[in-house]
């Protein structure tokens, strides 16, 4: 069956034909291509078409797809059994690796997804502070747990349901929403809810309203406000961890959160999540403390193996230099082409994470991201897809560079982009 036939068949038994809404390509008015395999910087659809991939499984494929060493370690681990529901040495090794390399991560608990990581971190912050309310930012996405699916980014935005049906008012009322890059909006919420805010959770580089970096002083300001009002600061580094720098956004911006959530890259492409931080807070988690959290497949040996192997391969300064330079090369090329064809175009980048918007204005928050020209994005996306470039199928997702992208790949992408811009002009 080709992609179209597979999509039609999938719609009969999977809601919308997909297992995660953004994959349906609704916001680019297209149908998804069904992927048969991936290798290095490429994904291949069921018809054998090759695409240069900037989705990278939504971030984890930072080494490129199908890395031989990661694959070989997973194959070895398979021979020992798939899952035991009991402690293993490999989860200790990954936990040690994470606590040794990430500042402020004194203890860490493994889970199976980023959603579980943020949901558990929020519960922990509430248990630790004995407070109920939380602050999040409009356009930030932290997975699909109820309290965080309020004014959320990513697929929630493009489906037109930033605050999902099914989230009760009782739950939603405890989630207060501030504006990204706007410290006053955070201060106002703290003032209006004195002694009630358990935590502030933030994507230190927002990657679910497209890519929106923090302005200078924003993260530091959050740290100060949390200290002033006795709230826990949570950096959701599910996307940025090991992506924007080896030690994540903390390394780039030098701000210390109390709790950190991780996912994506630390599973090397296998399902994973983790949350951790200060020992005094983490010791409130069961079985040490009163905050319950558990998981049948938590610390799964295949995920731990894939993650640890990936991190060890990644841990070289020159890798991060390469990711940064490749991304700069791509974005500079795109900007030059857009300007050649008089197309308003604005780009953002932190290391190997990037975004582009069809606008001539600086984008610092969700409001600005939503003002960019979505119809131009759709046309651009469709053209790129039809000519072998796989971009995230939404104007509200970040792009991801991998170490497998070569200059030849990027030159190919720029050639295609020139034709796309020419069509838009
Ligand atoms: C910043 C951030 N946090 C949390 C999540 C949720 O992770 P998962 O999809 O693994 O549940 C995502 C992505 O989905 C994310 O980008
Ligand atoms: N933006 C999301 C994660 O980062 C995209 C993944 C998904 O929801 O399917």
From TrEMBL:
Its EC number is 5.4.3.8. It is found in: Cytoplasm. Transmembrane segments: none annotated. It is an enzyme of class 5 (isomerase). It catalyses: (S)-4-amino-5-oxopentanoate = 5-aminolevulinate. Pathway: Porphyrin-containing compound metabolism; protoporphyrin-IX biosynthesis; 5-aminolevulinate from L-glutamyl-tRNA(Glu): step 2/2. Pfam families: Aminotran_3. One of its GO terms (cellular component) is cytoplasm. Homodimer. This is Glutamate-1-semialdehyde 2,1-aminomutase. It comes from Psittacicella hinzii.
